[in-house]
Amino acid sequence: MSASRTIKATRHGRRTRGVTVDEAFVLIRAYARRSNQRLGDVAQAVVADPTVLPGLFA
Fold first, then answer.
1. Residue 51 burial class via C-beta count within 10 angstroms: exposed 0-12, middle 13-18, buried 19 and up
2. Does residue 3 belong to any structural domain of this protein?
3. How far apart are CA 31 and CA 42, in angstroms?
4. Which of 1, 3, 18, 42 could form a disulfide with 32 if both were Cys (CB 3.0 to 4.6 A apart)?
5. What pLDDT digit, counting tens, does each position of 13-30 carry?
6. CA-based angle 35:21:33, to the nearest 5?
7. pLDDT top residue among 39 and 5
8. 24: domain range?
9. HEC string of the chain?
10. Which of 13-22, 26-35, 49-58 has the least mean pLDDT?
11. One MF term in GO for this entry (predicted)?
């Protein structure tokens, strides 16, 4: 899904990949804290390849 489609979907309250933008932020922030990593680094990893973060949904 393109970035513009994601933003439009978010405005309409739709979920992308099963979570809202707010829920995704909470998940990414919690993962960064648990793994003692910078939030920006974790966010970049999610965009590049979310499969490299095994405990993201834990």
1. exposed
2. no
3. 8
4. 42
5. 555 567 888 888 999 999
6. 15
7. 39
8. 18-58
9. CCHHHHHHHHHCCCCECCECHHHHHHHHHHHHHHCCCCHHHHHHHHHHCHHHCCCCCC
10. 13-22
11. RNA binding
